């Protein structure tokens, strides 16, 4: 605590990102992609004219938004870009969720939402997952007065994804406030709600280049929604930082979007490895939640999550353990290369053998 901090800053509980270790570890803790970005990314970096760094980037990111619009078959005016989807989410909290009523959110979901809620003074109304560890759509929509609804699909850290039909049933029930669907992991097997934005002007879909495009270090995220919603985000962005996306990031993002083949191959590889990993974990006695993301959430009936986490760490393998009552016994394991997952399974055979 410091006397210099504004009172609200004293009340913050900042998000704690997963560890980025200095030593060489098998790193399965922050849902990064184990495969390199598209080859065109290297070429774009190589061809980048250093002299461009003298100039400010395009504040509207027109070229990148155009590429995303083409990818999603929407208009550029329906696309917003930011410095990682974390920033896009933060701007969305400011733009849409400050109506003086609670924001409906699953009790288990991306743990940055409560942090933004605290930062922007948004009250959360948390709804437990159902018995299958799925986002409970009926509970989320049970009340009539709210500032909005937010959840991740696939959800984090469970990996469960609802179908478009279920998302649409939510949208028919919540029409007066923004419904934000965070699709950070959608490319690993779920259906994108971008297909619904033309019919639901209150639907905002966010996404990221960090996972399926292997560009977590670049910091590039986006939102797709009605022009009305994108304008709301632009108003907040232009009251905060005119240039959240630098010229290098724009160029690299565009190069990544161009390579559909690389994108498909990487995500298919991750999906195949995920299913193989799930089977092998189950053979070791783990309960593994079905996942449509690039991670699985797993627990063992005979060993505590913290104990397995520590055993893996000793063997140079880093996974994610959440110290909360509901998730305490689970481990969230990012899907790495086949070799990395072999190392994981070998270590678990010793720890849980
Ligand atoms: N949403 C979810 C559900 C996530 O897990 C993450 C990654 N931690 C993000 C958004 C943010 O990703 P980024 O800022 O890298 O785009």
UniProtKB/TrEMBL annotation:
This enzyme's EC code(s): 2.6.1.9
Pfam family, one: Aminotran_1_2
InterPro entries listed in its UniProt record: Aminotrans_II_pyridoxalP_BS, Aminotransferase_I/II_large, HisP_aminotrans, HistidinolP_aminotransfase, PyrdxlP-dep_Trfase, PyrdxlP-dep_Trfase_major, PyrdxlP-dep_Trfase_small
Keyword match Transferase: yes
Superkingdom classification of source: Bacteria
Biological processes per GO annotation: L-histidine biosynthetic process
Cofactor (UniProt): pyridoxal 5'-phosphate
Residues the record lists as N6-(pyridoxal phosphate)lysine modifications: 211
Top-tier EC class: transferase
Domain Aminotransferase class I/classII large: 24-348
Pathway: Amino-acid biosynthesis; L-histidine biosynthesis; L-histidine from 5-phospho-alpha-D-ribose 1-diphosphate: step 7/9
Gene3D superfamilies (UniProt xref): Aspartate Aminotransferase, domain 1, Type I PLP-dependent aspartate aminotransferase-like (Major domain)
The protein's assembly and partners: Homodimer.
Family: Belongs to the class-II pyridoxal-phosphate-dependent aminotransferase family. Histidinol-phosphate aminotransferase subfamily.
Protein name as it appears in the record: Histidinol-phosphate aminotransferase
Organism field: Vreelandella subterranea
Gene assigned in the entry: hisC
């Amino acid at each position: 605590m410091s006397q210099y901090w504004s009172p609200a800053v004293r009340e913050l509980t900042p998000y704690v990102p997963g560890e980025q270790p200095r030593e060489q570890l098998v790193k399965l803790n922050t849902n990064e992609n184990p495969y390199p970005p598209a080859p065109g990314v290297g070429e774009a970096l190589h061809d980048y004219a250093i002299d461009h760094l003298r100039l400010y980037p395009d504040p509207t990111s027109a070229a990148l938004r155009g590429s995303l619009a083409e990818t999603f078959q929407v208009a550029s005016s329906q696309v917003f870009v930011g410095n990682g989807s974390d920033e896009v989410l933060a701007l969305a909290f400011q733009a849409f969720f400050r109506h003086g009523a609670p924001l409906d959110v699953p009790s288990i979901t991306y743990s940055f939402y409560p942090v933004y809620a605290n930062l922007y003074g948004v009250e959360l109304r948390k709804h437990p997952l159902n018995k299958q560890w799925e986002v409970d759509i009926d509970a989320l929509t049970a009340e009539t007065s709210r500032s909005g609804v937010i959840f991740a699909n696939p959800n984090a850290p469970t990996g469960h994804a609802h179908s478009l039909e279920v998302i649409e049933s939510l949208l028919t029930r919540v029409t007066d406030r923004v419904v934000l669907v965070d699709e950070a992991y959608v490319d690993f097997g779920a259906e994108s709600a971008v297909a619904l934005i033309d019919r639901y002007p209150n639907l905002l879909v966010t996404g990221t280049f960090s996972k399926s495009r292997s560009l977590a270090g670049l910091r590039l995220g986006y939102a797709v929604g009605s022009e009305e919603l994108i304008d709301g985000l632009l108003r907040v962005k232009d009251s905060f930082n005119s240039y959240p996306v630098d010229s290098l990031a724009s160029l690299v993002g565009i190069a990544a979007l161009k390579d559909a083949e690389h994108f498909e191959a990487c995500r298919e590889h991750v999906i195949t490895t995920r299913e193989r990993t799930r089977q092998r974990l189950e053979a070791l006695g783990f309960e593994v939640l079905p996942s449509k993301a690039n991670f699985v959430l797993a627990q063992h009936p005979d060993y505590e999550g913290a104990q397995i986490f520590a055993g893996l760490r000793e063997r140079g393998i880093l996974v994610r353990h959440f110290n909360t009552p509901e998730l305490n016994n689970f481990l969230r394991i990012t899907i790495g290369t086949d070799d990395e997952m072999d190392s994981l399974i070998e270590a678990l055979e010793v720890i849980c053998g």
